[in-house]
Specification:
Blueprint: E1 15-18, E2 21-27, H1 41-57, H2 62-74
Antiparallel strand pairs: 1-2
């Protein structure tokens, strides 16, 4: 799972499960966001704060942080 594109409530994700053991699922793809649900300003602020934390911790480079920030602000 991406440390930058953290899943939000309402995001979708394809999964597989064993009908005999329904308590075990396996994610088979990336999380997707519904096209009709734009991020709220509060969600954008939280995502920007998370990005800054990742940058300060060294998990993201300055360039990676700038690229993700531009993606978030673009909508």
């Amino acid at each position: 799972m991406s440390r930058v594109a953290v899943p939000r409530p309402g995001d979708g994700c394809p999964v597989r499960y064993d009908p005999e053991v329904t308590t075990r699922i396996v994610r088979t793809g990336d999380f997707t966001r519904p096209p009709t649900a734009p991020a709220s300003p509060v969600e954008v602020v939280h995502a920007l704060q998370a990005l800054d934390g990742l940058r300060r911790s060294g998990a993201l480079t300055e360039a990676e942080c700038r690229a993700q920030k531009a993606r978030l602000l673009a909508g």
